[in-house]
């Protein structure tokens, strides 16, 4: 790739590569800090979540230098982030003190399931009691994504090596459309489960900086999925013009990767600040007030 670049292009590639290396070093330093300062019950979960932005930045950098590897790098980032979504839900439960303590804190509380991205417009949906069973279904909502998305991506790679899977061929007769729709549905259910949990614990975990953490997580979802999809659609429709020797799709891929490197670099730096803030300990379950609209807890 570098042989076909002019001087500004080489400078851009060098700068983005340096940003990726800095993001990796920032994450390594943060992982060492977490390993030393955070209790072992939360340590691995927080390291996984902090690794999302550097991993996506690294895969984008590899895809930028080696264009033929783009499919594999995108799949790697997709698999990793599927696991991170499940880890984020588990982190919220851990920050509440674990499942048993969470059930005691919200003994008479209810989950509001009319939330995004699936049911934000369905305000008539009933509020669900917080029990072991409902917690199990929320955890299953993210766990299924962490398991099924790697399986579907592996199936896509197998079909691609056989010539049956063409990413830009979205005809009903091809497998790309059906696999993409199925992955999209699984993604929505996983994000819905995280949204339901966040809506319930955001007030309780405000002292744990859960709101900026959730905002960073949402930015990664939007930038890694929605932004990349929009750019790829523009490229496939020739809205992004070709620039020889790069076709429209190749330019779209380059633009998406370069934007992700810069965005994930910023998120990595901000995450280091957010996850290093001093937290206030949660009050005992008997002293915690419920969210407005819920019944008061019984000590």
From TrEMBL:
The chain crosses the membrane at residues 12-33, 45-66, 72-90, 136-160, 175-194, 214-235, 255-275. It is a multi-pass membrane protein. One of its GO terms (cellular component) is membrane. Keywords: Membrane, Transmembrane, Transmembrane helix. It comes from the Eukaryota. The keyword Transferase does not apply. Signal peptide: none annotated. Pfam families: Solute_trans_a (PF03619). It is found in: Membrane. InterPro entries: Ostalpha/TMEM184C (IPR005178). PANTHER family: ORGANIC SOLUTE TRANSPORTER-RELATED. This is OSTA protein. It comes from Hippolais icterina. The gene is Slc51a_0.
């Amino acid at each position: 790739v570098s042989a076909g670049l002019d001087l500004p292009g080489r400078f851009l590639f060098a700068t983005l590569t340096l940003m990726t290396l800095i993001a990796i070093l920032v994450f390594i330093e943060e992982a060492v800090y977490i390993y030393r300062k955070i209790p072992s019950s939360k340590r691995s979960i927080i390291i996984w979540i902090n690794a999302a932005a550097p991993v996506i930045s690294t895969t984008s950098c590899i895809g930028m230098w080696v264009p033929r590897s783009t499919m594999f790098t995108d799949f790697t980032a997709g698999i990793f982030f599927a696991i991170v979504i499940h880890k984020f839900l588990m982190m919220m439960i851990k920050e509440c003190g674990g499942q048993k303590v969470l059930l005691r804190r919200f003994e008479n509380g209810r989950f509001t399931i009319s939330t995004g991205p699936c049911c934000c417009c369905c305000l008539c949906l009933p509020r669900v009691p917080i029990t072991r069973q409902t917690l199990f279904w929320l955890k299953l909502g993210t766990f299924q994504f962490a398991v099924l998305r790697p399986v579907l991506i592996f199936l896509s790679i197998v079909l691609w090596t056989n010539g049956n899977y063409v990413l830009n061929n979205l005809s009903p007769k091809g497998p790309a459309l059906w696999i993409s729709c199925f992955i999209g549905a699984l993604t929505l259910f996983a994000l819905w489960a995280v949204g339901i949990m966040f809506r319930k614990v955001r007030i309780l975990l405000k002292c744990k900086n859960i709101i900026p953490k959730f905002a960073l997580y949402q930015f990664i979802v939007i930038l890694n999925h929605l932004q990349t999809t929009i750019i790829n659609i523009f490229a496939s429709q020739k809205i992004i013009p070709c620039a020889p020797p790069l076709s429209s799709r190749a330019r779209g891929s380059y633009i998406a990767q370069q934007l992700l490197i810069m965005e994930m670099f910023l998120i990595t730096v901000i995450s280091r600040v957010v996850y290093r803030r001093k937290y206030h300990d949660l009050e005992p379950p008997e002293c915690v007030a419920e969210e407005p609209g819920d019944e008061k807890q019984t000590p």
